[in-house]
Design goal:
alpha+beta, FAD/NAD(P)-binding domain, D-Amino Acid Oxidase, Chain A, domain 2, 4-stranded mixed sheet, 9 helices, 28% helix, 26% strand, binds flavin-adenine dinucleotide
Length: 378
Amino acid sequence: MKNQEIAVIGAGIVGATAAFYLSKAGYSVTVYDEGTGQATSAAAGIICPWLSQRRNQEWYRLASNGAAFYPTLMTDLAEDIHHSAIYQQVGALVFKKNPATLLKLEKLALKRRETAPEIGDLQILSAEEITKKIPLLVTKDSALFASGGARIDGQLLTKKLIQEAIALGATVHSTKVSIESTPERNYLIKTDTIEKEVQQVILAVGAWLPNLLVPLGYQVDIRPQKGQLAHVHLSNMKDSENWPVVIPHGEKDIIPFADGHILVGATHENDQGYDLTPSQVQIQAMIQEASDIAPALNTATLVETKVGTRAYTSDFAPFFGEVPNNPGLYAASGLGSSGLTSGPLLGKMLVQLVMGQATDLPVTDYPIEKYIVKKHDN
Ligand SMILES: Cc1cc2nc3c(=O)[nH]c(=O)nc-3n(C[C@H](O)[C@H](O)[C@H](O)COP(=O)(O)OP(=O)(O)OC[C@H]3O[C@@H](n4cnc5c(N)ncnc54)[C@H](O)[C@@H]3O)c2cc1C
């Protein structure tokens, strides 16, 4: 099967990981990525699935295995796991609305650590201990600290994955494509100027999956969700690259990076379609909310607003697999708010499908046929 040509459409975290591992395995890979609205490059970058109270077991298994996969990915990319600008295990600090809920969360985390040692040390920190760990925070509350929590720069990660794929022989086209199936059961990848026939295709197009599959006669249960994030800067903030990511009670997370650069967000807007217009009102409201716990954010300089489109399904569950009735056509989508966590593992599992190998997690737990249904022959 090797030397076979494979097209990867979409170079967010899923497509870029797939392109890297396919190239590493000796396949001839062509990547097509339009880039507009990409969730990965707009994302906040928190890797901490173990402290989520979502009840969906398959989601948890995917996200926790996804988090556990990161050190392997970094090693495969020859990144120094302790000093990487891409991924750093800085720990995560989670607040809850009252002490009883925090204790409940600690209990859940201790239980989960039995099967997910990556969660690391767990400790409820007092208000004083919190400010000592991260001087930005001024609070009266306690919070749960998990040393295994990590921060990821999605943009840097995909850049590195694609660079490595290119070094291994992959070709990249920064363009939008459409796809047609041929009578020989191959696939035609089409742009205004290129037309290429391949036998196997990975669709890693996030929220844009309907655009590619509806013309092939499918009904696709994927919706776009707009996410906005504020990138702010605070001067005289030393050591910020070592601060943990902060998940306050509510939705506005605080993700510190080096030299006082901090991300605050994000919004989850289900009624904005694929719109990418930043809203100063929303951004100021997010900064205001986060400043309840980090008052210095009120004086921070707004560097940029990041806007991306997440993909989600009607029951918020992700899926991956071979597209029904189209052998050799694979897809993953519906990663929602946790795709930086699960994306690399999903990308790797798509490669395992291409290679005819068993996947790390059962493909039947993330059934693509539930979300992609053939309605008519195109
Ligand atoms: C504001 C925000 C904050 C987030 N924070 C976190 C977080 O803290 N932790 C976490 O785990 N996750 C987070 N996420 C979620 C995560 O970013 C996404 O789930 C994940 O990046 C999705 O990756 P993907 O590869 O499936 O899709 P994307 O990253 O969206 O990539 C899809 C790519 O396909 C391209 N494409 C689409 N159609 C075509 C076409 N026809 N031809 C060519 N190219 C095409 C797009 O332009 C895009 O580049 C956040 C998301 C947002 C928006």
